[in-house]
Amino acid sequence: MTNWANEANATINVPTAASLSITKTANPTKLTLGQLVTYMIKVKNNGPDTAIGAFVLDLLSDGFQYVSSVASTGSYNPATGLWTIGDLPNGSSATLSILAKTIKNGVWENVATVGSSSFNPNPGTNSSSAVVDVIRNGTNGTNGSSGNNVPIQDTGAPLALLAIAVLTIVAGIVMPKEKIDFGVKPTFFIFLS
């Protein structure tokens, strides 16, 4: 016989879980001052549930000035770097494109991080970054030298003749200006090998 007095009902609330992933790219990745770069951010909900109140934090680095942005869903605030996506169903994606102008030289890493109020069983995919190299105008980016250098041209004058010309000039400066006659005429020898 069953004793029903020892049984009870319980309600268990299981929180929603949404494994969010994010990827971020920049195009182009090598620029000069004043050029524009496009950052593309993509968020995907890999489930199993809807991501409640999904958002991304993506504040531009100091080397960039915000120009514009386009979000497939929600809105982006460039002052705070907050992209409010809202609820993102299982299997869905959202994208954000940010156009920025380069204002400082350097190598800049820009990080975007995704989150929601749902439990994320895979937090290792919550951040992504893109690196952009901004170089000075007129440099080729390899060694800081101008891309407009002119190579040394062959003059055709042998090095020995140039050495003799330099020594002759130096001898004229170093030798006394007055003629002193010691009965011996100075003789100079130049040995070239």
Question: What's the arrangement of secondary structure elements?
Answer:
Blueprint: E1 18-27, E2 30-32, E3 36-48, E4 51-57, E5 64-71, E6 75-77, E7 82-88, E8 93-102, E9 106-115, E10 127-135, H1 159-174
Parallel strand pairs: 2-10
Antiparallel strand pairs: 1-3, 3-8, 4-7, 4-9, 5-8, 6-7, 9-10
Task: Assess the beta-strand content as a share of residues.
Answer: 35-45%
Low-confidence stretches: 140-148
Count of DSSP E strands?
10
State the end-to-end distance: 120 Å
**Spatial strand sequence of the major β-sheet:** 2-10-9-4-7-6
> Taking Cα atoms only, what radius of gyration do you get, to the nearest Å?
36 Å
Major sheet attributes: 6 strands, mixed
Number of helices: 1
**SSE-based structural type:** mainly beta
- Order of helices and strands, N to C? EEEEEEEEEEH
